[in-house]
Specification:
The chain has 633 residues and is of the alpha+beta class. The protein has 18 helices and 18 strands. Strand 17 (618-622) and strand 18 (631-632) form a beta hairpin. The protein is rod-shaped.
Length: 633
Amino acid sequence: MTSAWQVLVGNLASVALLISLWMHLYSRFYRLSRTQLKLGFGAMMGLGVVISMLLSVELEQGIHFDLRNSLLAISAMFGGPLAIAITAPMAVAFRLVMGGAGAVIGVIGIAVVSVVCLIAHFAMGKYASGPRGVTAAVLVLPVTSIALIFAFSKPDTPTVMYQMSLITAFLNMMAAAIAGSVMAYFHRSMLERDILRAALTQAPDFHYVKNLDSQFVITNLNVARYSGRQKPSDMVGLTDFDLWPPARAQELFDVEQQIMRSGEPLIDFEDAFANETAERRWFSTTKVVLRNRHGDTVGLAGVTRDITRRKRLESELLDSRNLLSQAMTEMSDGLAMFDRHGILLFCNERYRTAFPLSAYARQPGAHIADIVRASARNGERKDIAMGVTEAWIQNAAKDLHVTRDTEIPLSDNRWLSLRTRLTQDGSALVVVSDITAMKHAELSLRQLAEQMRDLAETDGLTGLANRRVFDETLASECANALRTAAPLSLLMIDVDRFKSYNDTYGHPAGDACLKDVSECLMAIAKRPGDLVARYGGEEFAIVLPATGRAAALSLAETFRASLQRRALAHAGSEFDVVTASIGVSTFNADTPLLTVEELIESADEALYQAKKMGRNRVEALAFEARPERLKRT
């Protein structure tokens, strides 16, 4: 019995040896596909089954006890159908080669254990190669072994056969537990290694590890390809002197040796270098010291990122920013940007200089309410009183975020145009322009327009209103008299024998005479509503609103006497001086109808009567709305 135990313990050792051998081979052939690895695992477990059966304990002729079932279980649980498809046939074939009375039972046992463990593999799913799978295998093996013993036992089976079967079942369970635990740990370690390897080799940056001599120990694929190699393993043992020009390589070597001597890491160091194509590229490098568990420096790990695109974008952004800054500085208008909360984000110098009294408040970060407050306190704007309330300032600040164009007068007599436009995010863009010259030009144009209007409405010689203004004023006053039933008087004046005056004294003297007549007329029309107009040639007219017949006759007589007293010599006149005849027409409240034409005809008729009666006199007719109804008074 002692020798049997020794054989079984040796069998257990062979199982451990086979598992260890597989782990070594797996790490060497990790590049193989998953199918190839599972087939290889099945073949290795099949070899283990053969070795286990070679080291079996034979109690009777053809009846062998060994640890084959543990390897079958491990193959099925960890390798799945591909592995057990190799392991189980190898076990069956070798058991048949061994022959003996227990060959058939042995083959059946191999099949049962393989099938049961394969079912457990599918039932466990992704947990089959972990601790749960190991536990399932450990539980399946003794149950299956004991079931086979009782299924094929006979009444005359010796007791030692049962004892040996139980011992073998126990050792298979122990072997499966040990081998399964090792395999589970190995699988977990390999998974972590694969994750680390994938992270290193598939990372988009340049990852590498160097030893104390700055030789590459491991790199990712990017380093290999950038260096002109096909795979990372080609980089092992190389240094920067094999990849870069001597000066560049020496520089990198000195930096790395300094890092390993001082222990101080190099963090995000940016450097530029021109490659063989003379293309300038930028890199950001981080290198840290690697230490063993005793704290000794064993090398360094580095990560280098190609930041050429980022640096180019930064350069382009800087150029654009400088260009924008220069444009803002050189532009003739002021420019400012406020966010949706009223905070000044940026402004150019032109914006500040446009408001000299509040320039100190117009700085990035200032609120529009503070700017308005400073402008009001310093009396900068004519349209903002210095004593405005805080509520007014807050309301004015809210008006910032309204699209509009505003013109504001400043206390230094300048005018500014403020054009406010809103952006999609609610910010306000304000453009400030100095429109002082334009406003002055506008004022000049307005004055010119007024002058042109005066010229269009004024007689050029006398300065009185012209015929057009007379017609418009008389029409308006007639309408007003009809509406209000107020009296309205019209005086028509004609200089007596003026043609003879021109012929005798010449036209310049005639013009001077007309000016004297105009002065006399202006002297009697002193109310704002009175209008004195040159009707044509030597004829004049006066419109007297709210003036009755008696007052009109009095004013006419005052004018006639005033002109005669001037004693302007007139040799062609029977009075020896310049005189004038005046016709007066008055609209009264009881007149049934009034038109401009009728009022003028009435005044003309009165003037005609004055001329007919000997000139230098005043005549008046009462207006009765129709020429045929006019009567002499």
